[in-house]
Amino acid sequence: MSLTTSLSPNCSGTDTVVATTPLVTFLVRVQETALGTFGEEDFDPKLYVDLSLKFNLSTTQKAFDELPRSGENGTVSVEDLKVFIATYFDDAGDDLVYYDPVDFVPEPEGFLPKVKNPEVRSWALEVHALWKNLSRKVSNGVLEHSELHTLLPLPEAVVVPGSRFREVYYWDSYWVIRGLLASKMYETAKAIVTNLIFHVDTYGYVLNGGRAYYTNRSQPPLLSAMVYEIYNRTCDVELVRKALPALLKEHAFWNSEIHKVTIQDAQGCNHNLSRYYAMWNKPRPERSRKDKESASKFLGNSEKQQFYRDVASAAESGWDFSTRWMRNTSEFSTMSTTSILPVDLNVYILKMELDIAFFANVLGNKSTVESFLEAAEARKNAINSVFWNDEMGQWLDYRLTNGTICKESETWQACNQNQNAYASNFIPLWIDLFHADAALVENVMRSFQSSGLVHAAGIATSLINSGHQWDFPNGWAPLQHMIVEGLLRSGLKEARSLAEDIAVRWIKTNYVGYKKTGAMHEKYNVQKCGEFGGGGFYKPQTGFGWSNGVVLTFLEEFGWPEDLSIGC
Predict the structure, then answer these.
(1) Catalytic residue among 172, 316, 320, 397
(2) Is 522 in the active site?
(3) What digits encode the pLDDT tens for the residues 500-527?
(4) Cα–Cα distance measured from residue 144 to residue 94, given in angstroms and rounded to the nearest whole number
(5) Catalytic residue among 95, 156, 250, 522
(6) 301-320 pLDDT, tens per residue?
(7) Greatest C-alpha distance within the chain
(8) Other CB atoms closer than 10 Å to residue 400's CB: what's the count?
(9) Is 41 exposed, middle or buried (0-12, 13-18, 19+ CB in 10 A)?
(10) C-alpha distances in angstroms, 79 versus 48, 86, 533?
C-alpha cells in the first residue's frame, strides 16, 4: 500500500515555541553552576529548577552574580554555593504542602470485595494508605507570590507520583484516578480532574506537569478517559457539564496544524492522524546540560533546534526515552519523535472522540454526538489504514520519510512502518471499537503471545535493551493495564484468561518488591519477579502513583483467592 502525506502546505506553526519564564532561565544557570561545583554523582538537575525564591528575582540574581568564582569555567566553591542556596531558596517541594484527603478512610466500605487472601488484603490496605502520603495542596505562598515559584497555581488538592516527581503529571493522573476509584475516594479523583480542566482553561491544553518549565508540551491526552471513569462510578452530570468545553478545546489542540498530518492512501482517501509536537526548541530546563551534550553532535543551529524539539516531543509522549523515537536504535542523537505517527496517541484521541460523543449524549447535545462519532469512525479507519500490519497482526508506528520537512505531499511506503515489537503496538485493544471484534482480538492475541513481550513478571516495553527506561527489560504499570483491560473487555474466554495471568504476574512482582524494599516503584524488571526497573537518566523512583493505581485496579477486577500464594 502506498500512502501520500501532507503537512499544512505552508507549514505555519511548526516553529512554534512557548516562551519560558525569567525565573526558569535563571534557575537553569544555578543548575549548571551546581553541576560544575558538586559534580555528576547523585546530581539531579530537576531539583534546581524546582527551587523557590525567598526574595525577588533581581535580588537573588544579583547575589548569584556576585559569588566568587575561580578557574576558566568560573566555578563556585562548594561552601559558597551551599550558603547561597540555603540563604536565597526554599527547598524543592516546599511549595506543596501535605494535604489530608477528606474522603480517605483506613478501610473503605466495600473495598476490594474479591480479595480473600488476608496477606494480600493487608498489603492492599497499605497501598491504599499511600494516597494519604501522596496528597498535596499548592501552598499559599505560590498562590500569593507565583513569580517566586516554578510550581504553577492550582485550585484543588493533587496526588503526586512520588519522589522527585513532586508535582501533578498529566497521564499519570489517569491511573491514579483508577486507583482512587477502587479506594472509593471520589472527591479526590474529581479534584484532580478539576485541576486538569483548569490547565485547559488557562493554557489551552493540559500541561505535561504542574511546573513552569512544562508549559511547552502536553502528555498523552487521557482527560476524557478520567472523566468517563469517574462518571461511570458516580453519575456526576455536573462534572461532565464542566469537563465538556475543556475536552472540545483539548481535541482542537491535538488536531491543530502542529499535530495533524493528512495522509492519502492508494485509493485516494484522505486520513487525518496526530503526532507529538512540543512547542520548544532548546535544551529542556529540567535536564539542560545533558540535552546540550547530546546535541553537540550537530553543527548547525537549526539541526540542534530540531533535535531539542524531538527530545521535548518524546517527553510529551510519556515514553522518555525509548528506541521507538530513534531512527538508529543505538544512537540517542537520531531522536525523531516529530517524524513519527504513534499508534497509542491516535488511540487516545480516538477514545477522546468516543468519550466526547458519550458526554454530549448525556447532556442531550445531538449535533456534537453526531460529529464526534463521525470523527471517531474516521480515525478508526485511519488507524487501520496506516498502522495495521496484517502479516504481523499488530498496529505499527508510521515514520514520515522526510520528517517534518514542509511539503504538500509525500508518498509513503508500507516499509515505513516500524516493525520492532513495542507494547504500544497492542494499545488499540484497549478501545471498544477494536476489542469488540472477536476475530481481530484472536488474531492480535496470538501475535501478542508470540511477540516476545510477555515475560515472567509482566509485559516488556520493547525487545531492545538500549539502557533507556521505556525499553527492555522494563515493564510499566500503564502498559500492563491497557493491554490487560482490552483483553478482558473483549469478552473472549481465552483473552480473559491471558489478561488474568498477566495481572497476577504484575501483582506478584509489585507485592514482592514492596515486601523487599518497603515501597511501590515507578517501573519493574519484567524478567525478575520483585525487582524494580532501571535505566534512563535518573535514579529509579518510588511512591508511586500509577503503580499503586494499577495494583488496586487489578485487585478490584480479579481479586485474589485465599489459597493462591502471593510470592514469586
Answers:
(1) 320
(2) yes
(3) 999 999 999 999 999 999 999 999 999 9
(4) 15
(5) 522
(6) 999 999 999 999 999 999 99
(7) 71
(8) 21
(9) exposed
(10) 17, 11, 35
